[in-house]
Amino acid sequence: WDIWARTFNESSNSKINIEDTKILADLTIFGNSNTLNFKNSEIQFNMSLNGSNNTYNFDNLVSSDKIPKTLIVFGGNSLENNNNTTTVSNTILNTSNESSFDILYLNKSGSNNTFNIINSTFHDDNPITANDSALIVISGASGSHNNVTSSTINTGNGYIFLDLTPQGGNSFITSNSTLTGAIMAEIDQSSTIGLTDNSIWNLTGEKSA
Description:
This protein has no helices and 22 strands.
């Protein structure tokens, strides 16, 4: 299937499964208390997930063949998105050019959200440039939990951008994972980072804090 839709409105308390599909345009999804499952699918443009009490599962995402290989934006910027869980699992993504990223998780205004990366690899194909990022996490108002489990994130001499502290209580925790790249954050902000279960973060580049 190829999906060209711009806006998709879910009702409440529904479950939607999407498999073997290409998303060929920016997609905005609205709804509350729903479950959305993407599997074996390719997302070529930004995806905005808006609503509360939702579960979003992205399993075995296919790396886009478009250039640049900026894959996906999860979350919204201004809308209140609360109590959501977004999980990316069993996925291998590659960035091919400068100033691009594999995953951007953006939820600046919502509270009590969870973002999980499980059994996945994000890799920068051009790690000598300092402007690349395999992962950008901007987590909202408070109580947001960002977890990397059994995964590898390698941005070479680029960076992993974390913006977790507008109101505190947010965290970035790794388990049995290896991360390579500088840590980059907003000026005058701090981030709670935990490395557990033999996790390693190889700090490289000039943006490490």
